[in-house]
Amino acid sequence: MTIYKNFHRIPSTLVLLAALPLGMAWAGSPAPNDPHRGGKLRLMSTAGAGTIDPHINYTLQFAQIFQGVYDGLVAFKKAPNAEAFTIVPDLAEALPAPENGGKRYVFKLRRGIKFSDGRELTVNDVAASFRRIFKVSGPTAGSFYNGIVGADACLKTPASCTLAGGVVADAKAGTVTLNLVAPDAEIFYKLAVPHALIVPADAPTKDVGVNPLPGTGAYKIVSYDPKKQLKLVRNPQFKPWSDEAQPDGYVDEVDYDFGLNDEDQVTAIANGQGDWMFNPLPADRLGELSSKYARQLHVSPLTAMFYLPMNTRIAPFNNLQARQAVNLAIDRNALVKIYGGNNLATASCQVLPPQFAGYEAYCPYTKNPGSKWTAPDLARAKDLVKASGTAGQKVTLLTEDTAVGKQIGTYVLSVLNDLGYQASLKVLAQGVEFTYIQNTQNKVQISYSNWYQDYPAPSNFLNVLFSCGSFHEGSDASVNISGVCDKGLDADLNKAMSVGVTDPAAAAKLWAAIDHKVTDLAPVAVMFNPKQLDFVSKRVGGYQFSGQFYFLWNQAWVR
User: Fold this and answer.
1) pLDDT digits (tens, 9 = 90+) for 340-370
2) What is d(CA 244, CA 88) in angstroms, rounded to the nearest whole number?
3) Which of 242, 98, 108, 79 has its CA nearest to residue 170?
4) Antiparallel, parallel or unpaired: β 219-225 and 175-179
């Protein structure tokens, strides 16, 4: 197959990448007279990432942007590497101690913080933002915030959501009280992710699409065209209150341009016409980049996976044997080469990445089942397809129009045909594909996707991607793409989250068992765990990689 013709030399050229820098020391906000302050940073991506609504958008691409535009009650520390997983107070003055047996948290709001439109932040904005999560049917309303008192009623009838008794604003005291149905060991993580960001109380209770909402961060979005550009400038109302939560930025303006393909983006950065690109670097350029631009490359480990969701509700993948056959047939080594080689990805069969609590190596989908993937087993896979009775059925594979997405799609298409299906490939724009494959109305059978952690806990993979609460019929925000809803699995998930409140070690064992159970159910075919390779222009200084938000664009400067 011609797909491999450009990759024979990659492993040797990528040896150089192993010695590349892994980030810099955290600096915090620049001083007002810092000589690096000012200028325009030019970011690039093949396409925009859909809606600019922070309570609805569920992409790393815009989560990376939102962290410099909006704030939550708490935040992940804006710092390099694993230090970024630390929770710090943001709009709240301090991290409150748990009350009522871990079911109540009282947040004291900082005073004097203003939205970018000049209005002062109030406790009513906070309470309304939590209600809005449900009113707009946010993708994590049923998995992150369903433990808030009153959330059940909000999930049933979002339009009339009040969260009565769950979120209580006290204007006189300047506090917001959060009451939970049960203790939640991950509640601060859930409050620090973009879906819990605070917007004005009068924000529309529907998807705002391309119209940005005011925020309290160091920058504000002034325009957004998903096909052309997202533009940010300094928020004139911003005065730093916490370098850890929301540091001031260096550049005066950020232009995030869309429309160039991956190859042209690399060329633009090499020529100094762009500063950074969101998309994975094309594998056929890695040799050139590692030899000519090594000082402009940064490699960082990720807690993420690339995978193939299979629709468990329609043929042929409503059949377990058909799903297992795909898992057995794919050559994960070939997929790793497509992504860029062993220095940039590691083959995997299971959902949890190696760095997570609960990870126990497990791979039943290989020629030698055990803890590690070794080779595909096409013969056994064909036997399973035959036994399933699905051979000969038509299958359409959906992928995105990035270089990596199209190459992986082309390869998987060949595997599906080898298994005996009548397979075809449909390529969609990157900004469209993720929402399209989530909506059951589109009847997507199998697709290409990836998952990057929202926060460092196993539930963020297993509960978010495979619980009944994450499946929403007919919605563009149904991240349980495979549509699996298993009551026994849900019970296991709830037990692991409950045990984690008091006994993290015991919970880790439960998560390991759940990870293996999901792998056996095969709603997805996990391909590999990636590493991040950032290529920046010569103009960029102060590069930092956050384990939570990746490239900290607002902490970089331009020469």
Assistant:
1) 898 889 999 999 999 788 999 999 999 999 9
2) 7
3) 108
4) unpaired
